[in-house]
Amino acid sequence: MSGSPAAWTRFRHHLITPPLLLAPMAGITHSAFRRLVAHFGGYGALYTEMLPVRMLLAENLQRSPLTKRRLEEGAVMYQLMATDIAPIRAALKRLTAVEPFGIDINLGCPAPMISRKGGGKALFDDLHRLGEVLDTVRTAWSGLLSVKCRLGHETAFWRERFLERLELFTIAGIDALCIHPRFFHEKLKRKARWDLFTWVKSHWRRPLIGNGDMTDATALDLLRTGACDALMIGREAVRRPWIFRELCGNRVEIDYVKVWDDFFGFCLDDFTPDRAIGRIKEFTSHYADNFFFGHELFRRVQSAPDLSTLRKRAHAFLQADPRVRQ
Q1: What pLDDT digit, counting tens, does each position of 74-115 carry?
Q2: H/E run at residue 220
Q3: How wide is the angle at C-alpha 231 spanned by C-alphas 227 and 234, nearest 5°?
Q4: What predicted TM-score, i.e. pTM, was given to this entire model?
Q5: Which residues fall within 8 angstroms of residue 33, CB to CB, at 6 or more apart?
Q6: Rounded to an integer, what distance in angstroms lies between the CA atom of residue 73 and that of residue 105?
Q7: Vertex 151, ends 220 and 25: CA angle to 5°?
Q8: Where are the beta strands (DSSP E) in 39-123?
Q9: Would you report the helix, strand and coil content of the chain in percent, each value rounded to 5?
Q10: Rounded to an integer, what distance in angstroms lies between the CA atom of residue 316 and that of residue 301?
Q11: Alpha helix locations (H) across the chain?
Q12: Does the pLDDT of residue 126 top 70, yes or no?
């Protein structure tokens, strides 16, 4: 796979070079994984996983693997789960200590647990509360501000409801919009509707970030045709953390054992062992997709009772020169 994206895009007065972004993913885009992606490079910005606003009031932001940022990561966008306006100002004031490149508000997560708390999909649905939250964030944060959302609910009037939110985003001073073109109920079950990027862009005059099924160089056509101003890559970047570098047209020779070992070590640097094991298993469940018999790697690792066993089992598979999917 090779290609060459546009050299840059501009979010307000910020240059994103190249216009390729790592998506926020729960349990994955913590500091250890961002460090792994940073080793390969080729991206314009990385996103944290979704951070509950109230959590930011209690965390040690410089030490927590959810919020800490290494210089080698470059531009890091901090994605927030906002449910009410009360803690927003204090949380954003604390967050300035880690120097975010920008703030993103999650309006797309369809998980029931997040909806019950009033975040993600639930905030998207509540137009009045959404307006209050965005206005409060914009007042408290003068820097780059984006939102990430889906298309909404699949009804006869979904376009009208979506345009209402685009108007609200404009009024609130949102600098960039990320669209995952699926409806809430679809989760990841069907192909993302790339054809709708052009429709959204015709109603949105600021930068548009495309997300959903960005797995190879065919996605670069969305940049070349102007359908999107930037691309956001999620699960494919977990499977292949070097994908950004490849999309920039660089050939990458991969030592699959070393990549896994690097991530293992990065997790132990940032997490306590009892928390690291879950993160390593989560990463390996995606990384296993690189191999024809990756389900065997997945099976061995998921049942490992401790880090030592986990590492031995992963090495037994990876050092046996497994056949790689192309």
Answers
A1: 999 999 999 989 999 999 999 999 999 999 999 999 999 999
A2: none
A3: 140
A4: 0.95
A5: 238, 241, 263, 266, 279, 283
A6: 21
A7: 65
A8: 45-47, 51-52, 76-81, 102-107
A9: 45, 15, 40
A10: 11
A11: 31-40, 88-95, 112-116, 121-125, 127-140, 158-172, 196-202, 221-224, 235-239, 243-247, 256-270, 273-287, 294-302, 307-318
A12: yes
Place of tokens 């930068």: 207
pLDDT value of position 2: 45
In the chain, the N- to C-terminal Cα span, in Å, equals 9
Task: Work out the percent of the chain whose per-residue pLDDT is above 70.
Answer: 98
pLDDT digits (tens, 9 = 90+) for 230-268: 999 999 999 999 999 999 999 899 999 999 999 999 999
Distances (CA, A) of 40 to 37, 45, 48, 239, 247: 6, 13, 17, 13, 12
Catalytic residue check, 248: no
- Tell me how far apart the alpha carbons of residues 258 and 267 are, in angstroms, rounded to a whole number: 14
140 phi, psi to nearest 5 deg: -85, -20
79 has which bridge partners? 104
Is pLDDT at 1 greater than 60 in this prediction?
A: no
Select which of 109, 178, 248, 267 is catalytic. 109
| Total residues found in the chain within this entry | 326
- pLDDT (tens digit per residue) in 144-168: 999 999 999 999 999 999 999 999 9
